[in-house]
Amino acid sequence: MRFILRAVLLLVLLALVLSLPSFASSYYLGLVIKIMIYALFALSLQLLVGCTGLVSLGHSAFFGIAAYFVTLLSPESGAGNMLWLLPGAMLAAMGYAVVTGALALRTKGIYFIMVTLAFAQMAYYVFHDTALGGGTDGIYLYFRPEIRLGDWVVLNIDNQFVFYVFTLACLLLTWAFLALLMRSRFGAALTGIRVNEQRMRAAGFSTFKYKLIAYVIGCGLAGVAGFLYAAKDGYVNPELLAWEQSGLVLLMVILGGMGRLWGAVLGAVALTLLQELFQSHALFGEFASRWHLTFGLAIIALVAVLPQGLAGLPEQLRNRRRSKSISPASAQ
Predict the structure, then answer these.
(1) What is the reported pLDDT for 308?
(2) Structure pTM?
(3) Which keywords does this Swiss-Prot/TrEMBL entry list (predicted)?
């Protein structure tokens, strides 16, 4: 029964998202596209943090590298071909992940966090301090990529509605891929590594290999999010690779609920909407210019009230009701 209710709820949400462009303004449609891109980005980190137990503070490097790849290799006089730009962006992110992951995964705990942060900062300063991508000024993408077969344009995402549907399709495919991955033998091994890596190693599993593959896959999916971000705004700068971006997506995973794929999506929705809310001059007036303060206080409050994240809220409420129903019985 619970499975049927979840399926119905998912279908209703999907129908609502698909019908959104028919009544939403251009601004709100752009906001939903931004949320979906960050949800995909958070899903890529959920594979590492919630499913494998690898807390990374350098995930923004792969997001930014993919965005720069698309922008630098797209022609200035016309749209680039997505058939090679999207896979190329993923491979660029995955290539950097292979090199950095092979070194970072030899460490654990806080040392792994600091090493991933160091590698991300290295990539950040490559784009920040050199003329490769326009330095601190960044670089523009003048035409969104399109899918072409010869002279035939199969898909043009320059239209906002088409780009909205394309982003939604990327998010759903990423979700489906990760759901199947975590239900496979490989996913079970990742769960075992997260719970007790030493026991998995004693059972004969090469945990380093499993963690490296998961790391590369997660970084490749972050590359998809980077591709979409560059195509959405048409502009990238070094701040996409900064540690603040990694911290933001890590907060999405924590707030949404670690270990649950839909928790990453909930976290992306919640944090993006909170940012928009506290930056609203209509609601907060001049205080909106200091939105970081209210945003930070809201996150602290939410994490304190929801230790299992937004995805764990139903279970938290059920446990609270169960404890209240047991207390009178035990008193008698």
Answers:
(1) 84
(2) 0.91
(3) Cell membrane, Membrane, Transmembrane, Transmembrane helix
